[in-house]
Amino acid sequence: MKNEGLRRAWAEIHLDRLERNVGKCRSLIDPDCEIMCAVKANCYGHGCEGIIPRLEDAGINWFAVSNIVEAEELRDLGVSGEILILGYTPPEDAGELIEYDIIQTITDLEYAEKLAFNAPRGERVRCHIAVDTGMNRIGLNYGDDIRRIADDAEKIVRTQGLEVEGLFTHLPVADSLKPEDIEFTNHQIETVCRVRDELKKRLVLIDKLHFLNSAGAMYHYDKRSDLVRFGIMLYGLKPDISRDMPVELEPVMELKSIVSQIKILPKGVTIGYGRTYKTERETRVATVTIGYADGCPRLLSNRGELIVHGKRAKILGRVCMDQLMIDITDIEDVMVGDTVTLIGRDGEEEITADEIGKLTGTIGYEIVCGISQRVPRIFIN
Fold first, then answer.
1. Is 200 tagged catalytic?
2. Residues of the chain with pLDDT under 50
3. In three state form, how does the secondary structure of the chain look?
4. What is the pLDDT of residue 68?
5. For a tag on the chain, would you pick the N or C end, based on fewer CB atoms within 10 A?
């Protein structure tokens, strides 16, 4: 059976760009600092089956995922490197974590005890302890009370059934230029480093400390972080589109569709659901076979643009579930079957996921993660 998606909408994933982005990320850190690639949510919507092997070819040995299902999928793909689950795993799945050799995040002492209780006798769950230094999401949280944080961390380390190998925190505003946010981030870094120092004084040694994400590596690089968790930068998007970056990245994903019908409409007729657009002149309209069920945001209705023959064409009316309409009046020689670009470059024009995110009041992360599974990923070397 032919893949119908290839005849209506598809995402081109450029693996050569991914590899170059990895190299540019490496240029920001010390040679002995390791990269942990965030590959959760199907590699931010790009497709694990193509992305992961290329990352391994580029020398990546650390991967971060959201949950145990994602972790096991990586093992099924043949990943032999380290896999850290950043989110929650039910304690009763402790045996599965051991079976698949997966590292679990420990969020608090109670969770640690439950996970250890469920570990098969004589075996240990590998884990990293999360320290909440101000994001208030997960992790040991006693504010600036370093000794109390270290007390819990020490108890976790000494818990039978656990093998604590790492300590980490997350920086939520590392991309901000606001003085108070810079101070906040610096305080977070010092807090988690002080926790490890306090543990060292107690002869509690933890192998890995990591606190830098993509933005942290660019704007707050610190040699004390043994790993850098690169995420969005791998895929060629900015942590914050308003800030310049020290390296130039290449978007890995391009999202494309085709023209399925062309019609000429007179002035004064309406287009689409709700009749939200009325033609102001005789208008040449193309129907494109992609919609919000594919990941094209409905918020682009009457405001977004697509690229056809190297020129931008405005979306007319509401984006439908499976289709949308564009104005091609001023674009010559458009024919049924022609390729239309929603994300990517055509000639001198380019539309990025970051641009779409800004236009729709969100971020580029959400745009690429929102490309649905019915859109085939075509991996290009």
1. no
2. 1-3, 5
3. CCCHHHHCEEEEEEHHHHHHHHHHHHCCCCCCCEEEEECHHHHHCCCHHHHHHHHHHCCCCEEEECCHHHHHHHHHCCCCCEEEECCCCCHHHHHHHHHCCCEEEECCHHHHHHHHHCCCCCCCEEEEEEECCCCCCCCECCCCCHHHHHHHHHHHHCCCCEEEEEEECCCCCCCCCCHHHHHHHHHHHHHHHHHHHHHHHCCCCCCEEEEEEHHHHHHCCCCCCCEEEECHHHHCCCCCCCCCCCCCCCCCEEEEEEEEEEEEECCCCEECHHHCEECCCCEEEEEECCCCCCCCCHHHCCCCEEEECCEEEEEECCCCCCCEEEECCCCCCCCCCCEEEEEEEECCEEECHHHHHHHCCCCHHHHHHCCCCCCCEEEEC
4. 98
5. N
